Prior knowledge:
The protein is α/β, with parallel strands linked by helices.
Amino acid sequence: MKKNETRCFAGLDVGGTSVKSILIDASGNRLGEMVEVPSRVKEGYAATFDQLEEALFLLTKRAGQRRSDIAGIGLDIPAPSSGGIVRVQANLGADWVGVNIPDAFSARVGVPVYMTNDGNAAAAGEYAARPDSDDGLLLIAPGTGLGGGLVLPGGQIYEGANGLALEVGHASVPFREANGALPDCSCGLKGCAETWVSLMALRRRLGIELAKNKWQAHTLNAFSAPIEEKAYQLRDYAERGDPLALSLFFEQASILGYAIADWVRLFDPGLVVIGGGLAEASFRDQYMAWVIEGFEDSAWPIYLKNPFDPQAISTRFEWAIEGDFAASLGMAFVAGEVFG
């Protein structure tokens, strides 16, 4: 088969600031270079379609393919959707809601399109990067918030009836502030996992800690930057061994491990992948150890050791390996599965 006759599949990851994209062949091999173009999601879906077409043009050009070689497109967006219909505006422009985006984009480009949310897409990317794994995969991604995604054995994404499955950041956890209060969550509830494990949580917890006598002499108290800016610096402080920063990451990791034990009881995935920026931190091994300790403290024994093989681990933990392009790889992989 000649190169320009090869069927290929595109993955388009639509974020708030950029569209990341990748092209694979029918065997899952990456073609050409990964492409990133600016995102215009706030300007509406039509403006975003312009950017998606630009990404497709660059992908095929750099891979030596033709647009007509693309047999399917996988698309993810930073908002809940189900059956191709955007359910909640989230980080998009208002005109996205209620529109069947895959049908609209497919009509424009003449290629079938499948769509899901960004958490599911990233989980699919991590699954595709582990072709030898027979387990399902639960992705947990601490970032500004706390996202998640689930891929069933065989590669099927689990979305839920309303596209809202695996909103792990908004599952309740039994932790309170020292005064007994449940922290407020951005979703309108209280005590969600995201209020303890996220950058937003770091801001709140750092403000509380810096007000204590114990940390009055800390260098983060020596300048008047906003708490948001100080929280962004915590990873650097932790990498230098700062006790305050490490204590806050220890707290987050322990609570995350506790919560993961609940989610494993629900989904029994076999493999838990931790994503987000901490996957690249120099103290990530220590962070993962804290997560596993929190998990082991509250997990059922069967999820720790295989009852038929005491040497086998029932639930494995790994760091994400695909970085910023996990979601685009996942959508290309899904497109290949759906339209291949």
